[in-house]
Amino acid sequence: MDMFIDGAWSATATGATRAITNPATGAVIDTVPWGTAEDADRAIRAAATAFASWKRVPVEERARLQHRAAAAMREASEEIARLLSLELGRPLKGALQEVRRAADLLDVYAEEGLRLTGEMRQSALPGEKVFVTREPVGVVVAITPFNYPINLLVFKLGAALIAGCTMVAKPADDTPLSTLKLASVLHAAGLPKGVFNVVTGRGSEIGSALIAHPVPRKVAFTGGTEAGKKIAALAAQTMKRVTLELGGQCPAIVRADADLGVAARAIVNHAFANSGQFCYRVNRVYAHRSIYEALLEGLAAHASALTIGDGLAGDVSMGPLVNEKIYANSAAQIADARARGARILTGGGRLSGDPYDKGFFLPATVIADADHSMKVMTEETFGPVIGVMPFDSDVEAVERANETRYGLAGFVFSGDIGVALTMAEEIEAGSIWINDIHRSRHDVPFGGMKESGVGREKGHYGVEAYLEYKTTYLSYRGALA
């Protein structure tokens, strides 16, 4: 599959390609171009040409096209989801859900665009009007991760398009196929050429070229914190705006008065979704000492019931980890916890034998008796591993929850809503769930505090991140006849 530039498939001039493999089987699915700075320039110039006309399309027409694009995504959802499952290893059911949720987000953004307004200020001067309007920021570079390649792209794409921006996207090296397919689907649905372009290649080459290029005015990135810092530094050289959704090490607090059945189920379902490969998953759990062993029993029971295998081979709960690097981080955290005296209640080691030998299959791993000397409680895991630690007071639990450089999400389980809300106020995170965990809503802001990022996505908050304010002063003279 080639890159998608200016409404057409495009190879790189060098002819270099990279194989895309199925992480469950090791089989090569397809190849993509290993693009260069020259390819980045071609895509950006196509987006810049398209921007000149796209920004002038009335927002009502952009919304109509975006709704049509969402409908086309749903029609092609099974084809896109199959590619996503092949390249990521996620069970097909979850891949299909991602594509359809992303289509819903396109619709939400379209409606938010129709609600954008400007202002006319009251002026103290006779013969003067002051208008405050919002204009699209310009060409946008989107750099997206492997774990939710469609949904996290649409976080950015849907907001940019309805605002009047055009985009060049660079998907993750492991999962470009679903994004490339999406580009062709949206173009066939009526999105003008050059409005949405996709390039593939090494981040240090084509990614850096996109960010450093003088034409784009914004970079939107989801990924690791260290990569985000480098992107922000490079973007600052040309004063580009940035939206950065970065790492997380998210705490869950379970008080003595919590419904332990609900808490155990919610924590396991959330922590091990997508094999733990997402940023706002539960990474560490703090349980009141009086219910500590009971909660551990519930967590272990739910985690042990999760099935693992090839996402296209049957109805399984978890697929493989996407590559050796991602697996190695989880393995290192498990080994570190063992060495420091923790108990491994479930999982704890890579599965072997047929059909597991060809992929990095790690079962849901629950680590008991963890503490903050262990990596699992202090570093992002991005895999199917959680650490559990007892606490004795609410103050201690909140202090432990905030003892991190991250601040993406937090979770509280308690029968006392007043205490739970107070904890939510004190936890330093962009989103807090109380007494259950579900997907983040499309109409409210999503993003992090501290080193978990800059800016917010989703809802009108996301659209506004792609707009500039402009103030116009109008002086006039007129006399009534």
TrEMBL record:
Keyword Oxidoreductase: yes
Annotated CDD domains: ALDH_F5_SSADH_GabD
Pfam families documented for this protein: Aldedh
Keyword NADP: no
Enzyme class: oxidoreductase
Organism domain of life: Bacteria
EC number annotated for this UniProt entry: 1.2.1.16, 1.2.1.20, 1.2.1.79
GO terms of molecular function: glutarate-semialdehyde dehydrogenase (NADP+) activity; succinate-semialdehyde dehydrogenase (NADP+) activity
Coiled-coil residue windows: none
InterPro entries: Ald_DH/histidinol_DH, Ald_DH_C, Ald_DH_N, Aldehyde_DH_dom, Aldehyde_DH_Superfamily
Domain Aldehyde dehydrogenase, chain residue ranges per copy: 13-471
Keywords for this protein: Oxidoreductase
Family: Belongs to the aldehyde dehydrogenase family.
Protein name (record): Succinate-semialdehyde dehydrogenase/glutarate-semialdehyde dehydrogenase
Lineage of the species this protein comes from: Bacteria, Pseudomonadati, Pseudomonadota, Alphaproteobacteria, Hyphomicrobiales
